[in-house]
């Protein structure tokens, strides 16, 4: 990742819900911030619309997770629920195509967190700036957020 | 592009082709199933990745966004 120093990456909430620390996500890879720093969001009930957290290219798109890479090369991973790859897309509807240019706030996926929970999986959604050092996210939101509201920032050292 | 060397090194860290039952790329991590977890060289895998999570015979290697390509490369080596 080669982000210009002093130019913060601003990541907005990809969906509505309650902000959760990554350390409380029931998955060692996210809770140890192996993939990067960020926050997670626990969605409420009912179908959740998930939007792009930054503007950029939809570099990876699976029903249960996607990555948007900004023009500066910052990759933001949004993972919808934990171990949801095993659902093979059930409960998820994709509204974009891998490789698309997206603006922040543009719909990418809708999914049903209650279906995820009904399979004894966590519906919590980690939002991670890939390769950012653990605990390096700043301006961290707390409490309830709506999709599109500021979630966290990150500035190159 | 994932390079074949990295796939081969990760495969060696997993105990070699004979020890790997299954490998699947999932966005940023390789989810693998091995026959004998004691043959997995976690220290070597950590040097090749962002982290390793071992749970019984399930070994996850966090390789970053090239996971799908590395998984394909490893499958070619099995």
* Element pattern of chain A in H and E: EEHEEEEEEEEHEEE
What's the CATH H-level homologous superfamily of chain B? Glucose permease domain IIB
The main sheet of chain A comes to: 8 strands, antiparallel
Within CATH, the superfamily of chain A carries the name Glucose Permease (Domain IIA)
Query: What ranges of chain B have pLDDT less than 50 throughout 5 or more consecutive residues?
Result: none
Summarize the structure.
Chain B: This is PTS system N-acetylglucosamine-specific IIB component (Glc family). The complex is a heterodimer of chains A (157) and B (78). Chain A is mainly beta and 157 residues long.
Word description of this protein:
- The complex is a heterodimer of chains A (157) and B (78).
- Chain A is mainly beta and 157 residues long.
- Chain A has a single domain (11-134), classed as Glucose Permease (Domain IIA), CATH 2.70.70.
- Helix content of chain A is 6%, strand content 38%.
- Chain A is built from two helices and 13 strands.
- In chain A, strands 9-5-6-7-11-3-2-12 form an eight-stranded antiparallel sheet, with no helix packed on it. In chain A, strands 4-10-8 form a three-stranded antiparallel sheet, with no helix packed on it. A two-stranded antiparallel sheet of chain A has the order 1-13.
- In chain A, strand 5 and strand 6 form a beta hairpin.
- The mean pLDDT of chain A is 94.
- By secondary structure, chain B is α+β, with helices and mostly antiparallel strands.
- Chain B has a single domain (3-77), classed as 2-Layer Sandwich (Gyrase A, domain 2), CATH 3.30.1360.
- Chain B contains three helices and four strands; from the N terminus they run H-E-E-H-E-E-H.
- Chain B has a four-stranded antiparallel sheet with strand order 1-2-4-3.
- In chain B, a hairpin with a 2-residue loop joins strand 3 (51-55) and strand 4 (58-62).
- In chain B, helix 1 crosses helix 3.
- The two termini of chain B are 20 Å apart.
- Chains A and B meet through strand 5 and strand 7 of A and loops of B.
């Amino acid at each position: 990742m080669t982000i210009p120093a002093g130019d913060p990456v601003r990541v907005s909430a990809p969906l509505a819900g309650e902000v959760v620390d990554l350390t409380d996500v029931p998955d060692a890879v996210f809770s140890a911030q192996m993939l990067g720093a960020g926050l997670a969001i626990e969605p409420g009930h009912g179908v959740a619309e998930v939007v792009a957290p930054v503007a950029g290219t939809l570099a990876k798109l699976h029903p249960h997770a996607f990555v948007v890479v900004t023009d500066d090369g910052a990759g933001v991973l949004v993972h919808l629920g934990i171990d949801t790859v095993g659902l093979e897309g059930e409960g998820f509807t994709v509204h974009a195509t891998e490789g698309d240019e997206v603006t922040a706030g543009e719909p990418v996926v809708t999914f049903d967190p209650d279906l995820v929970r009904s399979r004894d999986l966590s519906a919590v959604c980690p939002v991670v700036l890939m390769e950012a050092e653990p605990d390096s996210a700043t301006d961290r939101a707390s409490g309830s957020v709506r999709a599109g509201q500021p979630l966290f920032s990150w500035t190159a050292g | 592009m994932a390079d074949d060397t990295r796939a081969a090194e990760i495969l060696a860290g997993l105990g070699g082709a004979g020890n790997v039952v299954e490998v699947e790329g999932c966005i940023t991590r390789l989810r693998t199933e091995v026959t004998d977890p004691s043959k997995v060289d976690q220290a070597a895998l950590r040097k090749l990745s962002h982290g390793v999570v071992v749970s019984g015979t399930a070994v996850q290697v966090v390789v970053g966004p090239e996971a799908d390509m590395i998984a394909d490369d490893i499958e070619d080596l099995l």
